[in-house]
């Protein structure tokens, strides 16, 4: 089941016993946002290839993210996007905030933009087992046209200097009830700071990850088909099951095949670079973002390497 369907069917509040204080508590859970999620005009589900692309941009193209903030435009006033977290976690394992993230199978973010399309809020959700769901108590607020003031919330420390410009536009505050919970739980200002860091930390990398995803949408070359769940939902309603949410499934086929290939040359009429593979990447041209598909570049030196692999069944003669 997708994470969005888990949230849509989750209870609004969660009851638990605080192991530190011994109190029985009832606080907002992931289901508290289910109305916002159901009313969201578009919901995206990334496949593993798109997830890996966004993670690679966050990891390897951080300067691009920072330098392209001036042309960022959200696709919708509100949108949801989820992914396979095991794929993303593996690619971002060396980024500092990732070490604090809970182990989970799927993760997603609910983004709400202001009319300017340049500022908004971001909520983070995840599922450990594909059946239940959790919500991060932190609410990340961002304004790409202004540096956040200290009064807006807690500053978010960037994992490295290249991303600091992005994180200077963001701050974090907690859901009011969760904020009261952490303040009552802390026994000193230092302990409170540590508790808040544990709550806020896992949401940090989701901000540049969301930016990378939107830049990929800005670079799309054709419209992506929506998932039609009407027939399936009719059968689910007849059997007493809740309806599943409509969404847009994103796959690597959203990008056109490479159009450039061939030997490289130079102005000095000498052989170009050796044949090599250039991976797909985002390119900025003025106020537009383009996706340059993976392609071969350079001159073929000698005959192409050929290799034949024979596949047989284990018990075949």
Detailed description of the structure:
The protein is an alpha+beta fold and 317 residues long. It folds into 2 domains: 3-250, no CATH class; 256-317, no CATH class. It is built from 10 helices and 15 strands. It has helices spanning 3-8, 34-39, 48-60, 62-67, 85-91, 164-167, 176-185, 189-200, 206-218, 230-238, and strands spanning 13-17, 24-28, 43-46, 78-84, 106-113, 119-127, 134-135, 138-143, 154-155, 170-174, 248-250, 276-278, 281-285, 288-292, 295-297. Strands 3, 4, 5, 6, 7, 8, 9, 10 and 11 form a 9-stranded mixed beta sheet that branches. A two-stranded antiparallel sheet has the order 1-2. A two-stranded antiparallel sheet has the order 12-15. It is globular and about 65 Å long. The model is unreliable at 256-271 and 300-308 (pLDDT under 50).
Write the layout of secondary structure elements.
Elements lengths: L2 H6 L4 E5 L6 E5 L5 H6 L3 E4 L1 H13 L1 H6 L10 E7 H7 L14 E8 L5 E9 L6 E2 L2 E6 L10 E2 L8 H4 L2 E5 L1 H10 L3 H12 L5 H13 L11 H9 L9 E3 L25 E3 L2 E5 L2 E5 L2 E3 L20
Parallel strand pairs: 3-4, 3-11
Antiparallel strand pairs: 1-2, 4-5, 5-6, 6-7, 6-8, 8-10, 9-10, 12-15, 13-14
Helix pairs in contact: 3-5, 3-9
| The number of domains | 2
Structural class: alpha+beta
- C-alpha end-to-end distance: 42 Å
Continuous helix count: 10
Task: Let me know the largest β-sheet.
Answer: 9 strands, mixed
| Helical percentage | 25-40%
Tell the overall outline.
globular
H-E order? HEEHEHHEHEEEEEHEHHHHEEEEE
Radius of gyration, Cα only, in angstroms? 23 Å
Q: Return residue spans where pLDDT drops below 50 for at least 5 consecutive residues.
A: 256-271, 300-308
Strand content: 15-25%
Give the tally of β-strands. 15
- Average pLDDT confidence is 78
């Amino acid at each position: 089941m997708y994470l969005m369907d888990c949230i849509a069917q989750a209870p609004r509040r969660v009851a638990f016993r605080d192991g530190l204080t011994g109190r029985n508590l009832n606080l907002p859970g992931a289901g508290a946002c289910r109305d916002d999620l159901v009313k969201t005009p578009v919901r995206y589900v990334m496949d593993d290839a798109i997830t890996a692309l966004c993670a690679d941009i966050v990891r390897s193209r951080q300067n691009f993210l920072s330098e392209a903030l001036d042309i960022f435009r959200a696709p919708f006033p509100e949108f949801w996007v989820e992914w396979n977290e095991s794929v993303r976690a593996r690619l971002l394992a060396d980024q500092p905030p990732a070490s604090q993230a809970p182990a989970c199978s799927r993760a997603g973010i609910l983004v709400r933009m202001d009319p300017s399309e340049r500022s908004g809020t971001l909520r983070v959700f995840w599922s450990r087992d594909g059946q239940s769901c959790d919500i991060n108590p932190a609410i990340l607020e961002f304004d790409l046209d202004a540096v956040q003031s200290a009064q807006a919330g807690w500053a978010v420390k960037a994992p490295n200097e290249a991303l600091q410009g992005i994180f200077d536009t963001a701050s974090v505050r907690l859901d009011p009830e969760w904020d009261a919970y952490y303040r009552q739980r802390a026994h000193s200002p230092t302990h409170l700071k540590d508790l808040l860091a544990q709550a806020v930390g896992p949401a940090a990398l989701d901000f540049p990850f969301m930016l990378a995803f939107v830049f990929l949408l800005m670079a799309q070359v054709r419209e992506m088909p929506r998932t039609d769940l009407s027939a399936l939902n009719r059968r689910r309603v007849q059997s007493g099951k809740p309806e599943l949410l409509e969404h847009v499934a994103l796959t690597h086929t959203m990008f056109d095949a490479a159009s450039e290939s061939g030997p490289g040359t130079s102005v000095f009429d000498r052989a170009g670079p050796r044949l090599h593979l250039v991976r797909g990447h985002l390119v900025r041209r003025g106020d537009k973002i383009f996706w340059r598909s993976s392609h071969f570049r350079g001159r073929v030196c000698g005959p192409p390497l050929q290799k034949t692999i024979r596949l047989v069944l284990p018990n075949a003669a």
